[in-house]
Design a protein that fits this description.
about 325 residues, alpha+beta, NADH Oxidase, 2 domains, 4-stranded antiparallel beta sheet
């Protein structure tokens, strides 16, 4: 194995924190061990216990960060040797990553790593431009390589059903004050110095009012019919499946971003257990893990990220336990 030095570790972590996460919570920590390896840890301090009580979305987010870390090591010309969930006694330790023998990355992998800064979550309407079939075919292959199925939902009846389920999930969460309080906690003012959370779509909503996400019934609050809808599904529903789903998601999003395509991610239908179970029918079998749409957008917003200094910790068990 090749030791990853401190400067390289900081660079790799700086790229990895660009991964997507629900509410931009960035629920990860990285440990740079004395032997030059890097560990990916779940940071439960950044969890969403109301919307994501099992931590499924949290682990998916960490899987996306892991995918970027692997691409970065390959970009440096080394194989990435990954052990996922290496220690059953440490469930928050999601991956141990080492730099292995010399490796010549293909152009696609180089392009994906170069797209790390180009990938953004889109929160508006998409342009009326179709995503190329060849690109969609490549994205489904990328998902399959991670053991995840990417279900392209084209049937209009299924799309209408998905929209109804999304609306149903929104209404259910309207009646769940803890979920609304959680969203409010992660909303940030436009001039906030904090580097996590999401900037509120409306300036300073009055105290006690429902955040815009839960009372917006305009058409653009629902999935955009002009975009391509994809539902990621796994054969199992456990932390390993969630981690792999996150890896697949990030590789797909980076490849799409390199071709000028961004994603809008819809978590609500999969946060409500009864709705998620009904959403499974759209996959033809399997457990839905992530619902998103791809399209071309005229502009994207950039969310702030915590710096490597904030998420990269020494590999001392006591320090990591504080964030577990």
């Amino acid at each position: 194995m090749v030791r990853i030095g401190p400067d390289t570790a900081e660079f790799l972590v700086g790229a990895s924190v660009r991964a997507p996460s629900v509410y931009n919570t960035q629920p990860w920590r990285f440990a740079h061990r004395d032997d030059g390896t890097i560990e990916v840890w779940a940071d439960r301090c950044q969890a969403l216990p109301a919307a994501d009580p099992a931590g499924r979305e949290l682990v998916i987010s960490c899987g996306a960060a892991l995918a970027t870390l692997v691409l970065g090591i390959r970009w440096f010309g080394h194989q990435a040797v990954v052990r996922r969930l290496p220690d059953p006694a440490q469930p928050n330790l999601l991956a141990h990553v080492a730099a292995g023998p010399a490796y010549s990355p293909g152009q696609q992998e180089l392009d994906m790593f170069h797209a790390v800064l180009d990938r953004h979550t889109h929160r508006g309407r998409f342009a009326d431009i179709a995503v190329a079939p060849a690109l969609l075919a490549r994205l489904t292959t990328l998902a399959r390589s991670a053991g995840v199925r990417a279900c392209l939902i084209r049937d209009q009846r299924k799309l209408r059903r998905m929209t109804r389920l999304t609306t149903a999930a929104q209404r259910i969460q309207l009646r769940q004050p803890p979920v609304q309080d959680e969203l409010t906690y992660w909303l940030r003012a436009a001039d906030t110095p904090e580097r996590d959370g999401i900037v509120s779509p409306e300036p300073d909503p009055p105290a006690g009012t429902t955040p815009v996400r839960f009372r917006d019934t305009r058409p653009d609050a629902l999935p955009d019919r002009r975009a391509t809808t994809i539902l990621l599904a796994s054969g199992r529903d456990d932390p390993m499946a969630w981690l792999r789903a996150g890896e697949a998601l990030q590789r797909m999003l980076l490849h799409a971003a390199r071709h000028g395509v961004n994603a809008a991610i819809y978590t609500q239908p999969l946060e409500v257990p009864s709705v998620r179970a009904r959403m499974a029918a759209l996959t033809g079998g399997g457990y839905p893990q992530m619902l998103f749409q791809l399209g071309r957008s005229r502009g994207v917003s950039t969310a702030a990220r915590r710096t490597p200094a904030e998420v990269l910790v020494p590999a001392a068990p006591s320090l990591l336990a504080e964030h577990g």
